[in-house]
Amino acid sequence: MLEEDIFLTSPFVITNGINPQHCTRYCGNTIDNDSTIDPQSKIIGPLGKFVESMVDNKYHNANKYAEKTYIIPYLQRYSKIIDTESEESLKKLWGDYEDLLKGKNLFVKNPFRKDVSGCLDSTQVMGADKYNPFYIFELLETNPVFDYWLYQIPRFLLVQEEIRMSYETRFFVVDSNIVSASGRVIDCVPTQLSIDDPFHYAKKSVQHQSKSGDNQEVVDNTYYDSMFDYVEKIITTVEHHEKDTVTCVFDIAWSPDNQSPILVEVNGISNAGLYGCSAQAIYQKLYDNDCYQGLTLSDCREEMSNLVNNI
What we know:
- The chain has 311 residues and is α+β, with helices and mostly antiparallel strands.
- It contains nine helices and 14 strands.
C-alpha cells in the first residue's frame, strides 16, 4: 500500500495561477492553502481548466448525466438540461410544465459547476396562460438563492422536479468497482477509521436533505444495502452503453415517495466531498488502474507557472 500523503484538489485559484484552492488530506486535515503541503505530495485532479487534461482523461466527464437516456430511469424524476439562449429549449420546458410539472416546484442548478442550486416556486410565472420568453429569468430573480449568479446566469441549467430524498450516500467508483462509500456525515471527515475500513461510515447518514441543515444527528441508514445494489445496477448499465469501465461518484438517496433508492447526481471522481470516505482507498485504486498521472503539487506549480508566463 502507498503510505505517502495524498490530496484531492479542487480547481486552482486563478488569481495567481499556482495555488490549489483547497486540498483534503486523506488523514482528515482540511488545508485552506498549500503552505504546509509537501511539494512532493501526490495530487489527484482535476486541477482546473488549464491542466485538467493532464489528470482527467480517464475520469470521464459526468456532468451531462441528465442528458443520457439510459441514466434518466435511475433519476426517477423529471430532469432536463435547458439552454437559456435557445427559444426552442425554453418553449419545451414551458410545455413540459403544462404537461408534467404543473403545481410542482423546480430544482435548478448549473449542470457544469456546483456553484448554486435551489428550488423555485414555479406557480406564478409558469402558470401564466401566455408563453413568456423571459420566464426562466423571472423565476431565478425572485429567489435570493440565485443572487450569486447576478447577471451571469449560466447558459445551461439543469431543471429537475423537486422530490423528497433522505439518507443521501456517496459512492466512489473506480474502474467499475465501488471502492469507498459514506453517508452525508459532514463532521465525520476521513479519519483513521475510514482508512482502515473504506466503508466504515457507509451505513451512517443524516435523514433529511441538506436544506434541512447539515448539523443533523447522524443515524443508521437501513436502506444502505438497497442503495449499494442500485449503484451496481447503474454501473452495469453505464458499462453497457459506454463500452468502458466506470470511474465517477454516484450520490444515492432513499425516496420515501417511491420507496426505492434514487440517483441524486453523478460527479467526477474528485469533484465530490469525501466526508467519511477513504481517499487512500480511492487513490490506490486509481493508481492500480493507471488513472493516476504521477503528478505532485510541485509538478502542478511548474505547469501552472509556465502557462501563466506564456499568456
